[in-house]
Structures are given as structure tokens and as C-alpha cells.
């Protein structure tokens, strides 16, 4: 079949654009910084794993962009992302204070609900929001961004709020009956339930939308080129639309306990 001049011209233009996009992707070299933050980023002895790591690896594969990933203390990662062009940082909370400091690719999380978790055996506990648990004891990791929100809603440390070293300690306190609740996202609770070998069938969750919650996201240094920003934005959006992001989320979501009413 012979192509008309117009069709041949269109074919040539399309081919040139394809080659140009491939050349652009292959020429890009970015730096990626993050921290050890299970189950989002897990630094193993000789490898990296985690929900966010899987997402970033998929993005790098689809964009064909070269990258180096450094797992660093968070303060150092922030400093590098603030000062070095073409640096990606994740998983970073997108707060109003940070909005102008970075170029944002998008949120990593599918489900942004924060949940109160209690023992399934406590059938007397029924809650619809934060205010309902103020008369009971809640554990939360001392570095959790939700502490201010709890304080604003009447939670007082050592009275009805107990700060722990991490979510693992909060879970142990819940299992031992030292608190009635802990507050955490579902992805995090799923990871630690499996890690600690705890019986997930003994837990129930009460989830609600939280206006004070800011999503964990992917961002770039503010001086990164718009071509790079748009490339990653498009790729992340395609992951959401194709179901690829949801598939990764499902891989790390293992909770199948009871949902509170």
C-alpha cells in the first residue's frame, strides 16, 4: 500500500517526535532522596523496598529517566532537595508551608483516611469521630503529624494521649490493654501487623476523612525543568488511571479485620 505525501509527512513527524521524546528521557539524570520510613521506604541490607519505592521504580521505568536513589536522614534529604536542581524527594508531606518550596508531582497515597484502631473484643466502643474517644486512651508515635490535630481536639499527653517511639510500640500497648486506641493510616498498620506477627483478626478500625491531613507526595526541587516535571506528572497520572498505582497499594495493604460502624 502506497502512502500519500500527506500521510508520509505525518508519519515522519510522528517518528521524529518519538525519537525526540526518547532522547529527552534518556538524557535526563536526576537525583532522588528519601528516608527509611517503613512501609513506604525500607532500607534493607543491600536493597530498597516499600510501597513508595515500588511507585518510584515504576515511574522511572515508564519515563526511562536515569536516577540515583539515596536513603538519608530526613533533614539532609530536605536540604539536598531544597538546594540541588533536578532532585526528587519522597515521601514528603504536602503542607501549605511547603507548597511554594517545591514543584509537586502528585500524591503517593490512594487512601488518605486516618483510622482509630481498637481491639475487636471491645464491643462497647463505637465512635464516629475524634471527639468520641477523648474519654479513653489513645497511643500515637511521637513524631506523627496528627499530634497537633489531637491536641486541638482535647487530647492531653499522659491523660488521654500516650506518645510512643513508633507504631510498633503503639500496637503492643493496644494488645496489652494499656490503651483503648491507636491512631494510624491503614497502610502503616498493615505493615506492622505483619512485621510483628500480630493477629489482625483481633483489630477493628474506625476511619474518617480528616481535614487536617496532608498527603504524602512526590516533589522536585523548584528549579527543575518543566519538561521533567510534566514528564513525571503525566506518568503518575497514567499509573492512577491504569490501575497500576492501586495494584501497588493492594500489594502492601494486608489488613482484613473488622471495620467499625
From TrEMBL:
Signal peptide: 1-25
Listed InterPro entries: Solute-binding_3/MltF_N (IPR001638)
Ranges where the Solute-binding protein family 3/N-terminal domain occurs: 29-256
One Pfam short name: SBP_bac_3
Keywords: Signal
Gene3D superfamilies: Periplasmic binding protein-like II
PANTHER family, per the entry: PERIPLASMIC SUBSTRATE BINDING PROTEIN FAMILY 3 (PTHR38834), SOLUTE-BINDING PROTEIN FAMILY 3_N-TERMINAL DOMAIN-CONTAINING PROTEIN (PTHR38834:SF3)
Record's protein name: Amino acid ABC transporter substrate-binding protein
Lineage start: Bacteria, Pseudomonadati, Pseudomonadota, Gammaproteobacteria, Oceanospirillales
Amino acid at each position: 500500500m502506497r502512502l500519500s505525501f500527506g500521510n508520509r509527512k505525518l508519519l515522519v513527524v510522528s517518528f521524529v517526535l518519538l525519537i525526540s521524546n526518547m532522547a529527552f528521557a534518556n538524557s535526563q539524570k536526576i537525583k532522588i532522596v528519601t528516608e527509611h520510613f517503613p512501609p513506604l521506604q525500607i532500607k534493607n541490607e543491600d536493597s530498597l523496598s516499600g510501597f513508595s519505592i515500588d511507585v518510584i521504580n515504576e515511574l522511572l521505568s515508564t519515563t526511562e529517566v536515569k536516577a540515583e536513589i539515596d536513603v538519608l536522614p530526613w533533614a539532609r534529604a530536605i536540604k539536598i532537595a531544597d538546594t540541588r536542581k533536578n532532585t526528587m524527594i519522597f515521601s514528603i508531606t504536602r503542607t501549605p508551608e511547603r507548597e511554594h518550596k517545591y514543584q509537586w508531582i502528585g500524591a503517593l497515597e490512594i487512601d488518605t483516611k486516618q483510622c482509630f484502631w481498637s481491639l475487636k473484643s471491645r464491643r462497647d466502643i463505637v465512635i464516629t469521630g475524634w471527639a468520641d474517644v477523648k474519654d479513653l486512651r489513645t497511643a500515637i508515635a511521637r513524631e506523627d503529624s496528627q499530634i497537633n490535630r489531637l491536641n486541638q481536639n482535647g487530647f492531653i499527653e499522659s491523660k488521654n494521649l500516650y506518645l510512643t517511639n513508633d507504631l510498633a510500640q503503639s500496637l503492643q500497648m493496644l494488645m496489652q490493654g494499656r490503651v483503648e486506641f491507636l491512631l494510624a493510616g491503614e497502610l502503616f498498620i498493615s505493615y506492622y501487623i505483619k512485621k510483628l506477627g500480630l493477629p489482625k483478626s483481633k483489630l477493628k478500625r474506625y476511619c474518617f476523612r480528616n481535614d487536617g491531613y496532608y498527603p504524602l507526595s512526590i516533589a522536585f526541587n523548584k528549579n527543575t525543568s518543566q519538561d521533567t516535571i510534566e514528564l513525571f506528572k503525566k506518568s503518575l497520572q497514567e499509573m492512577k488511571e491504569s490501575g497500576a498505582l492501586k495494584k501497588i497499594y493492594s500489594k502492601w495493604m494486608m489488613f482484613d479485620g473488622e471495620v467499625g460502624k
